[in-house]
Amino acid sequence: MRCPVLFPDTRQAGFNKPGTLATLNNNNNNMEGGVAVPLTLIQPQYLLQFVHHVIDYMCGGPGVSHEMYKDCPLDKFWLAIQQVKTIAQEVTLGNLTQEKVVSLLSPLGQKTAENVYHIVNARNAEVVDHMLRETLKNTQHLKDFDWNVRLSVASDKVLDLNECFLTLHLHTSPPQSMKGTSDLCVEMTAPQVDSLLVQLKSAQDTLTALSLE
After folding, report:
1. Cα–Cα distance, 69 to 134 (Å, whole number)
2. Can you give the residue ranges of every domain in the chain?
3. What pLDDT, in 10s, does the model give residues 39-91?
4. CA 203, 123, 113: angle at the middle one, nearest 5?
5. Whose CB among 4, 117, 167, 195 lies 3.0–4.6 Å from 101's, allowing a Cys bridge?
6. What span, in angstroms and rounded, lies between the C-alpha atoms of 80 and 54?
7. CB of 165 closer than 8 Å to CB of 188
8. Other CB atoms within 10 A of residue 165 CB
9. Cβ-contact 116, 38 below 8 angstroms
């Protein structure tokens, strides 16, 4: 039986990645010579262009050239790129509001910080597309499955068990970065099967809603 079910590993794409906001806050609070955020080391007249270049890079465009921003030390340059990427992802996920972004980027000045937020927010659809593509790169595809049901009449602890169990064998293809196939065998009770069906229905509803947007 063929079934186009996906098992995404969303951690690779940054979806709700643990510590993302914590890292952003730590970078923001890491004061060195009065500089609160790496973005302050990008020349002000090129800052908004830099934000656009980072988002272009995130979405499959060319890398951001340090040559264009050589006044920024190389180590801080990479931190600045990471900061824009993190802000773009967190704004897209709804974890950062405009007020929070302006607060985090307050050393840039309110107007500049607001402009950074507006750029990121305006390119929301591109960032979503990038995050979905990154997720699919690390997705296992269900190629086939087999199942059987057995009735357990007793166990070593219960003489009169009479409980049904579903054994599910999943045959999956690995993410694009890996080769071969893998099998997973799961044994579930009736309530666990019901719970799985509810989760699958919820996932299907979510995918349907996303496809309609």
Report:
1. 27
2. 10-135, 140-212
3. 999 999 999 999 999 999 998 888 899 999 988 999 999 999 999 999 999 99
4. 120
5. 117
6. 9
7. yes
8. 15
9. no
Contacts of 162 (CB under 8 A, 6+ apart): 151, 152, 153
Q: What single letter denotes the amino acid at residue 5?
A: V
- Token digits of residue 150: 């057995």
The pTM assigned to this predicted structure is 0.56
- The half-sphere exposure of 14 on its side-chain side, counting CA atoms within 13 A, is 23
Whether 106 and 34 have beta carbons less than 8 Å apart is answered as no
97-154 tens-digit pLDDT = 999 999 999 999 999 999 999 999 999 888 888 887 777 676 677 778 888 888 777 6
Both tokens of 48, joined, read 């908004």
In the numeric block, the tokens 């995050």 are attached to: 131
